[in-house]
Amino acid sequence: MRSTKHDGRFAGRVLIVEADRALAGLYADVIATHAPGLRIDACPPERHEALHDNLGGADVVVCSCDAGGGNGFDVLRTIHTERACATVLALIPADRPDLADRALEAGAADVLLRAPGYLDQLAVGVRKNIAASRRAMRAEARRDRARRELEQAKREMAILRLEVQDLSRRVHAMKGRPMGALPLPVITRPVEMAKAA
Question: Is the pTM value of this prediction over 0.85?
């Protein structure tokens, strides 16, 4: 597939899910021309294992939804389930605008009819959604980090709670004992050791 780099890094990644290799090549050329700096890969929808492998890291997925058999909608659902943070642009036949609702229900963020001018709309849609997808992935990473920090704080609180309970039990056990029977604290800090001497 055609792809270009800026400063040795890709600005984003596009996955084209299309059974027709010529169409996939056309989409890749249009996207690379109008949205340079993207890595563009293609995968046929019937190769489920390859689709699964290629989804990782995709910011935008361009998926053709054929009218026959509903296979494209199953693929859309798979993409939406496995790579929820990627934006999916669904392409449907120009003579089947009724399929737009099905595509949206299956997880597409936007639907393009294969009508005159749709290739320009595709390039604009990819450019617009690359930025949105990157923002969504950064927000998800922040949420993951916050969840990990919250779990860590919960673990630390549980340890502190146990230590307080243990201290409370010791204090309760010492009630009523004469002062001489109370154990002396262990002094470990140098300042306290100097005072004790």
Answer: no
